[in-house]
Structure formats: structure tokens, C-alpha cells
Write a structure and sequence with these properties.
Largest sheet: 8 strands, parallel
Radius of gyration: 27 Å
Distance between the termini: 59 Å
């Protein structure tokens, strides 16, 4: 990163950088290198230098949006090869396939299922993203009718999959205003499809198995006025997809091939291993993933994996610290201390709600760390507990001074008693044992 900033610095005019809000040119170069400043902020750069540095500092993977409105799917704009280096930003859109050769009832059922599926996990609503309509009939009119049946892109983003420009013409006449993804431009038809993508302002997938040819094809389509592209390397196997997708991402991040600086498209249907292909696509850089209709277990597994991979590893999912009443507690209800790591909170919430035991969950701010990690890292301390008891007026809620702490926080029990004046009870280590512990041990 330092070398990159110094390389940028060489191209900057050595002027008073207070014009652009930075004390020195080197400070401005560092911000450019980390993506925290824009080229346009420097008024002294000439157009040629802006063009040069813009290519160096813009995201290595282009941001492409499929669809419009609240359920649109932004993909790309990624900066790293490995999630732990920074984070991944834009989760892949999972698009469920329907065919224009299917009966209308089956198409409607799948569309409604995709539209209405919501998986709630650690306080987040996880959804499928859209519909991929495949032109298996070969008939433009029937393709357009099925696109209309799928909502035309007005409620769910669409992928339009066909082999002939006439089918695309018919479908885009119905859905073109809603930015469906066109699949796919090949070396034979790219001029016609790039023209359609330009006319309707839609993203376009380019498709060929040879990476140099794929990069060249992307360049041709971009030059023809279709800059919002996805890359389909036509994988023949899961291992082939992983290897090719990694090569594409490495070239994009290293900026060695501008024609590969786009999100990746994966169609799991021809691979015949849907669950494994979904996992491979989520883990290895796919931007749009097309899948057949999914069983309930497959949907939940894919959505959960995607949530995990696209959570910032440096910022665990957190809940707001405070007091959370469960099952309408009164003044004799137990106060249960825990941390603000979302998975801990929602796990405990599920067990306690199911038990029917009235209680208060007392959430301390451990910056999203789990109990064991927070204790080991010094984030859960007696001082924090004492300050949080006062901040949230916990003593005003109950007529006792008993505090139940997690089993993994047992080493802090004496210190917490000394710092707070409350009597500490050490609860179980496993949240599943908490209802049984309270039934057996809680007495005020």
C-alpha cells in the first residue's frame, strides 16, 4: 500500500494541498491509495493525469447493478482476493430459474416463492434476489410472456437467458426499463447484444471459456457502449469454476487485465450439483448466481453462508447494548448478563422465549465479541458491567440485587461483586442449559 501511495504521489503536482483539504500531497496520495479520496478533489490535476490516476485508484472490479428499486442487486466493487484482508462488500445475487417452456402455474409458484422467502438470522432478513427466465422454447413471444408472468422486472430483478437477439428484443420490450441482466454476448452475437444493452441501459453478460478472449470480448462490448458487464467463463466443473474465478479475481485485483475487472456470472444448472455450486459461487467471487428452484434446506444453507462470508470480519454483527425484557418480566425476574454479539443474543433469546421464563437480558457493549473472546480480550470487565448497570438503570427494574453472568465469565464474578455491590450467580456455559438452570436455581 505504501509503494502504491508513493507511485501516486509522483504524479501529483507539488502544490498547496489545502485546496483539496489535505495538508500535503503525500497525505492526499495516501487517501487515494486507500480509496478514501477522489481524484476530482485536487483542482490542480490536468485531465491526462486524472485519467491515469483514475485507472489506478478506481475499484478493480466494476460495480454493476441488476434491477431497480429496493430489491436491486449491486455486485462488484470488490478490492481484495481474500475476505480477511479487508472485507467483501456486495453479496452475490441468487436468481432462481424458470423456463418459458413451463406451465404458467409452475412459473407463478416459483416467482411467488422467491418473492416471499425471508430467512431471519441474527436480526437480519435474508432473501433470494430475483428470477432468471430461460428461453427454452426458442419463441420470442413466449419468452416475453414468461418475463411478464415473472413480473417484468418491476418487483424482482431479472436475468434474461436466450440464444437469439429476437428473443431479447421481445423480452426487453416488456422489461427493458427495469435493468434486467442480458445473458449472454458471445463472439458471434456481441455486436447485436451490446447494441441492445446500450439502447435499454441494461447490464450484459459476456460469455466464452477462454480468458484472453473473454477479456477482449468485454473490451469490445464496453467500447460499443455497454460498460456494465459480467463475465461468464462457462465452467465445465466446480473445480474448473473455482480455478477460473480465482484467476479472474486475481487479474482484476492486480489490475493486470482491465478486461477482467468485472463481476463473475455463474449458472449452477448445467453443473448438476446445486448446493455445492451455490457454495462455490458464494465463496469464490460470483456476482450473480443462477440456480434451479431450491428446497427449503438449500435456501437456508445458501443464504446463511452468504451472510457469513459477506459480514465484515473486523466488525462482528452486533445488537444495541441495553436491557431486553423477555416474556413480560416483573420486579422479581432474573437479570441475565451477556454480550452484544448478535449470534449470542439471538441464541439466548430463542431459548428464553421458548422456556416462557420472564427475564431481562442485560446486554453489555463488548464491541460484538463473544463471551469467551470478550473475557479473554479484556472487553468484558467489572468496570464495564458496573458502568452499564448505572447507564441502563437496571436497579430500577427489579427488587433484588442478583446478577446472573455467563459460565465463561466466571473468573470475573468476584470483581463484579466488588465493583457493583450486586451478588453474582454464575450461570451455565451453554445457552441451551440456561432455562433449566433458572428453573432449578433462581430464587429471590
Amino acid at each position: 500500500m505504501a509503494m502504491k501511495a508513493l507511485d501516486i504521489y509522483k504524479h501529483l503536482p507539488k502544490t498547496n494541498c489545502k485546496k483539496c483539504g489535505y495538508p500535503t500531497c503525500l497525505a492526499f496520495a495516501m487517501k487515494l491509495a486507500t480509496g478514501k479520496a477522489e481524484i476530482e478533489a485536487c483542482p490542480d490535476l490536468d485531465p491526462e493525469t486524472k485519467t491515469l490516476l483514475g485507472g489506478v485508484t478506481r475499484p478493480p472490479v466494476r460495480l454493476v447493478q441488476v434491477g431497480v428499486g429496493e430489491r436491486s442487486v449491486p455486485v462488484g466493487e470488490e478490492f481484495v482476493l481474500f475476505r480477511h484482508e479487508k472485507t467483501f462488500y456486495h453479496p452475490p445475487g441468487i436468481m432462481v430459474q424458470v423456463s418459458d417452456a413451463w406451465p404458467e402455474e409452475k412459473v407463478r409458484f416459483v416467482v411467488e416463492e422467491v418473492r416471499d422467502t425471508v430467512v431471519q438470522r441474527v436480526g437480519q432478513d435474508l432473501v433470494l434476489n430475483g428470477i432468471a427466465v430461460r428461453n427454452e422454447s426458442g419463441l420470442p413471444d413466449r419468452f416475453a410472456a414468461t418475463v411478464t408472468l415473472a413480473g417484468g422486472g418491476s418487483s424482482l430483478p431479472l436475468v434474461l437467458i436466450a440464444d437469439n437477439p429476437a428473443s431479447f428484443e421481445a423480452a426487453l420490450a416488456v422489461a427493458g426499463n427495469y435493468r434486467p441482466l442480458i445473458h449472454a454476448a458471445t463472439e458471434e452475437n456481441w455486436e447485436e447484444l451490446a447494441a441492445l444493452a446500450k439502447r435499454y441501459g441494461c447490464p450484459l453478460t459476456v460469455r466464452t471459456p477462454n480468458l484472453p478472449n473473454l477479456a477482449a470480448l468485454a473490451g469490445k462490448c464496453a467500447d460499443a457502449g455497454a460498460p456494465d458487464l459480467l463475465l461468464d467463463p462457462v465452467p465445465q466443473s466446480l473445480s474448473g469454476f473455482i480455478a477460473t474465478a480465482t484467476e479472474i479475481r486475481r487479474a482484476a485485483i492486480g489490475r493486470t487485465e482491465p478486461g477482467l475487472g468485472y463481476p463473475i456470472y455463474l449458472d449452477t444448472v448445467p453443473l448438476n450439483e446445486t448446493d455445492a455450486a451455490l457454495a462455490a459461487g458464494i465463496l469464490k467471487y460470483a456476482g450473480i448466481i443462477v440456480a434451479p428452484p431450491l428446497a427449503h434446506a438449500s435456501r437456508e444453507a445458501a443464504l446463511t453462508l452468504r451472510q457469513n462470508i459477506y459480514t465484515d470480519p473486523q466488525k462482528p454483527i452486533q445488537v444495541t447494548p441495553g436491557i431486553y425484557p423477555i416474556n413480560d418480566p416483573g420486579p422479581s425476574a432474573p437479570i441475565l448478563l451477556t454480550v452484544n454479539f448478535s449470534l449470542t443474543y439471538f441464541t439466548l433469546l430463542g431459548y428464553l422465549e421458548a422456556s416462557g421464563i420472564p427475564s431481562y437480558l442485560f446486554i453489555a457493549d463488548t464491541e460484538g465479541l463473544s463471551v469467551l473472546t470478550a473475557v479473554a480480550g479484556g472487553k468484558l470487565t467489572e468496570t464495564l458491567v458496573a458502568e452499564s448497570l448505572k447507564e441502563f438503570n437496571v436497579g430500577d427494574l427489579v427488587d433484588h440485587r442478583l446478577l446472573v453472568i455467563p459460565g465463561y465469565a466466571a473468573p470475573l464474578s468476584g470483581k463484579i461483586e466488588d465493583a457493583t455491590g450486586w451478588k453474582v450467580l454464575v450461570g451455565p456455559r451453554d445457552g441451551a442449559d440456561l432455562p433449566g438452570y433458572l428453573e432449578a436455581e433462581w430464587k429471590t
